[in-house]
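Sequence only, no structure available. Ideas?
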Amino acid sequence: MPTKKQKKSVFLLEIGCEELPSLYTKDAISQFKRIADKVFTEARLSYEDITSFGTYRRVGILVAGLSPKQTPEKEEIWGPPESRAFDEKGKPTEAFHGFLRKLKITKKNIQIKKTNKGRYLCAIKEKPTSDIITILPALCVDIINSIQFPRTMRWEDSFSFARPIRWILALIDNKPVKFKIAGVSSGNYTFGHRLLCDKKIKILNPAGYFKSIEKLKVLVDPLKRKKIIISQLKKSVHKLGAEASFDKHLLEEIVYSTEWPFAFTGSFQHRYLKLPAEVLLASMSKNQKTFALFKKNGRPIPHFAIVIDNRPSKINNIRKNYENILEAKLKDAEFFYARDIKTKFENRNKDLDKLIFHKDIGNMLEKVKRLKNLSAYMAEELNLTEKDKNLLMRSAWLSKADLTTDMVKEFPSLQGIMGFYYARKDGEPTQVAHAIKEYYFPRFSSDSLPKTKYGSMLSFLDRLDTITSCFAVNLIPTSSYDPYSLRRQGQGLVRIAIEHKINIDIAGIISQDIKLLGQKLKKEPAVLKEEVLSFLKERVRPHLIEQAKREDLVEAIVETTFDNFLNMIEKIRQISSIINSKDFFRAHKVVERTANILKSLKLSLSEPNPLLFREKLEKDLFAVYQDKKEEILNLISQSKYALATKLYGATFFDILHLFFDKILINVKNEKIRENRLALMNVINKLYTRGIADISKIKTQLNESSE
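Reply:
I predicted one. Tokens follow.
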């Protein structure tokens, strides 16, 4: 008789803990689902769906359609070759019997299979299967142990978690899953909201969990909490005529720091609207996590919105508490602003020598002086007008001045922003004020870039100087160490250079920065320059691969002519346009053949000596090189890389092919051999030094390619 199909199960696992930071909660919810999928898959357990959920007090998963038993799986175990397993008469040898004994199997489990190396014995062994209820406790422990946090606490035999675990709810259908971790035994109970319904209740069935926990004033679904918060906020601010647009970062933080959210509004004195809007935002969001409110025209109004994790009966008392705290904060901000503007903005630079960037690198005044010098260098390299040069240098000189203000000391997030307001108040040019405001951008990987010309150039220079100066004193990022966020700084630098088309030689400006660092260097300038270039190569590669759609072309360019981000992109564009042509094939062959003959050779000659030529063909080849050298170099200097490639291939393909057929390069006479190698070297470098080492590019082309 056919066996009765076993019913699939529903599994629930909830970890209750002390209060998690909001970012930890969000990440733990995401991890939980991913880890559970991996653990169940590796355990050969199928399921229909996994839902992860959580709040700052609990994270968990609900697994629907979980198989009652592990999926059967056969394993192939290879044994000795057939030639060793059987003797000349076809009888099993000791190798055959030893293989059976080792695996504790019989002859019926053995097959002979053909492989690339010959015919081998192969044992087909079925992996044992277990019921879900048997293996689930161990799987639960694996899942919990696999959740990672930026920082953890350790206890109970080095078990680590973000916060102490207080309860574990584990159910499969209506049966508790019993296990113990971190000194806590699992059970079939959970707890409600700490303030509104602090009860311990039993969960009888995983399917009813969400309704049961909601009765305890807990919304475990983050999306549902977010929807309710937005709805409540919109309803509250609509009455005030405010725009229903809320800080997405603060909103996200509140979603993951509430279980039963409740929104309402408060107000503050109208006089504080004279403060910059960013000051209002910082005052509200820094400690109170409240939303500043604005009209549709973007102007702030004297009200704010609050979301708390409670449903109090006396809301007016709570509102008043928030208003009193905000009043104190705004009063402080008003005082800071009034005191800050008493000092002329440019005079603040004298106090930058008291702000240390790093003990080995120096203070902020020294950094500002380097930025001013680098600005002058960039202006010359980019052929900026005298006016543009002066505006850029002025922006650099005032870029860090607001770090000495009371407002920025109180609210570090306002650096640059307060500089903008103070510079404008002192009558600095608008371009300078905007550059001071923008040059901190981008602050993170998905952040927007500076919008203005001076802001983008200043941001580029500041990042370059931070990277170079940190490398100069061996503050080099590792896999787990990057305290100055140099990778992020490098990525931002590359984005700015490419998107704002900052057409400057990277090696040149790094050299200039190294000179300005002077005695602070803890290594040779050449070594430092190479380290910074290598670091930036890694940052720019993803951008170039996105453009080229092939890594070999990027390697051909980056490893030989790492000069200018825009030039590299232009080389990719032009070479890609001819890469499948006969012209490219010819140039590729010239570079490839000269590169192959030069491999592992150190040349003492930079240019071949015509007096050492012995054959007419080598004289002719050198004459062709001299005749076309300037024309090819001129095309490269004009960024006409495709035309230079065509001319290079047309010039050298035929005569070089003939040269290799007729002339032996590696002759016994050392001087003649080196002279011929020097000729190959100058022909190779004529192209690769200015464009790319295209011998690195994989191509299926042949001479008939069109």
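The first strand starts at residue 9 and ends at 17.
Hope that gets you unstuck.
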